[in-house]
Amino acid sequence: MAALRLVLSMFVLLLAVVSLSEGLRGIGPKKCCVRFNDKPPIKENVVSYIQTSQQCSKSGVLLKMKSGRQLCYRPSATWVRELIDELDNKVLPGEMSNL
Prior knowledge:
alpha+beta; 3-stranded antiparallel β-sheet; 3 strands
């Protein structure tokens, strides 16, 4: 009976350790937008963008600025879609254009 109790205790302890380590690992998205900026940034200061994860409750676009800051904007805004198109079509230094 004591051996069964020891085995059951060890199993519960192992289950608790695994649950804790999985919770600390963080399965969810890395960045989500909670609030959105309404004022467009200066285009020359934007260096890149990323779409937030589909796991986020609100869809968003993170614009990375030259300063390193990332600002959240609504992807439904017309100017955001236009800026994303410009960034996607921008020729990077060292690349050749297809003209």
